Amino acid sequence: MSFRLWPRSLIGQLVFAVAATLFVAQAINFTLLARGQKQQMLAHGGGMAGARIIDVIDRDRRGVVEHDERGRERGPRFQVLDHKPPRPERAIAMPELARYVSGLLAEADIRAASVEAWAAPNRARMRNPEYSEERVAIVTAEVDGRFYVVRSRLPAERSRLQGFLIWQTLFLYLLLLVPIMAIAWRAARPLRALTRAARANPALRDTTPLEEAGPSDVRDLIGAFNAYRGRIAAMLSDKDRMLGALGHDLRTPLASLRVRVEQVEDDRLRDKMIASIEEMTAMLADILALARAGAGTEAPERVDLAALVGELAADYREQGKDVTLGAVDEAGALARPMLLRRALRNLIDNAVAYGLRARLAVAAADAHVRIIVSDDGPGLDEEQIRALIEPFARGEESRNRATGGAGLGLSIARDVAEGEGGELTLANREGGGLDAVIILPFQT
Fold first, then answer.
1. 8 A C-beta contact, residue 269 and residue 296
2. Coil, helix or strand for 37?
3. In the structure, what pLDDT confidence band is assigned to residue 212 with cuts at 50, 70 and 90?
4. Residues 121, 146: contact at Cβ < 8 Å?
5. 310 with 339: CB under 8 angstroms?
6. Between 276 and 132, the higher pLDDT residue
7. Which of 19, 50, 109, 241 sits CB 3.0–4.6 Å from 104 for a disulfide?
8. For helices 409-419 and 267-291, what crossing angle results, to 10°?
9. For position 133, what pLDDT does the model report?
10. How far is 329 from 370, CA to CA, in rounded Å?
11. What mean pLDDT, rounded, does the chain reach?
12. Domains of the chain, with CATH numbers?
């Protein structure tokens, strides 16, 4: 299971990128400030210690340094010893301070055999809260066989820098991320509306232009989409007019031909000619129904699905066909009743023709309702399921309408379901048979 840190939304990506960049910048800023604070500490404590060592060496060479019987100068700030002093108690070695002081001595043309530096608590000021964190630097330099020990103060290592940077970072996050989130939301809101419109079925002919909002690039994109959708609607309308004219023009000669065929004296030839004309008329009706499945000429309304499947089952039983009702939930859907009825009739006809019988059921779950048409046929394999929802595809390979239609029933049902905001699925049932399911959004 992989964990993706990079967000998917526009707002999330902008906020994440700015937050990560700001964090890296503040980390670099903290590193530079900490290094500067450290250099300041070395310059303060090491500069004072180096100056005192140089002064003591100069005074010692001029013979003006007074010693007691233990070889220690009477002053409290430095010592001049003939032997290496022991390590101070509770002291911490500071090699960087030793290197800094060694550099100062080299600049003063003093060759030190060794330089050691230690940091120890300032016992003299432990009682003063203002200086309780201050430390003492003890630096020992070996020059010409003598050991010069001096003391200086080191600035306290306070946590003010960390606290300052934390508050600074929070302030910058607030100062930068809030406007960026507002700008990203302003750009993402019209993009979400554009995404919903692009996912809608173009056959619904919803040509209401989207509001051109957001940055100029987003407004240009929405304007282009509105123009593109308008052209699609115009082409679909032209197609509908063309098909309507085509259907009218074809029905007229077919009706005239039917009248003339009735005058044929040969009964056998007349019946065949009439059957061909009826086949052409039925095929023409199927083609027009497929083309107009999403035309939107019928107004959507709330459909009581339990009542609808009950009426369909009763109609088929009156025709002597084996169509029964299964479990039916009380549920509704916003749809165009005539088109939905046409789609269900196509599924029921297929179930009766190829699956012996049909059982109707309605199941409501979550935000969707499922209208199920089940049969007891042999079922279909996955390749057949993918192929049969395409226009003019038939499970029965011959083109004889006596054994099947024009292969448009499932295509019409699919287009109707998609036009109502749902989908059509075909699935084999355990134990045999096929379930054809129209899934629609639930309407209370």
1. no
2. helix
3. confident
4. no
5. no
6. 276
7. 50
8. 20
9. 54
10. 10
11. 77
12. 10-63+72-160 (no CATH), 200-297 (1.10.287), 299-441 (3.30.565.10)
Strand partners, 360: 325, 373
103, amino acid identity: G
State the amino acid at position 243 in one-letter form: L
The identity of residue 159, as a single letter, is: S
Q: Would you state the structure tokens that stand for residue 375, as one six-digit string?
A: 């049969």
Q: Do 102 and 115 contact (CB within 8 A), yes or no?
A: yes
CB 94 within 8 A of CB 137: yes
Task: Enumerate residues 6+ apart whose C-beta is below 8 A from 36.
Answer: none
**Residues in the chain, total:** 444
Residue 192, C-beta contacts closer than 8 angstroms, at least 6 positions apart: none
SS3 426: strand
d(CA 13, CA 81): 67
At 91, which amino acid appears? A
Q: Give the Å distances, CA to CA, from 276 to 67, 243, 269.
A: 135, 21, 11
Q: Among 80-84, 119-123, 146-150, whose mean pLDDT is lowest?
A: 119-123
Q: Taking the model in full, what pTM does it have?
A: 0.47
- State percent of the chain over pLDDT 90: 6
pLDDT for 343 equals: 86
Residue 78 φ/ψ, nearest 5 degrees: -155, 160
Which amino acid makes up residue 294? G
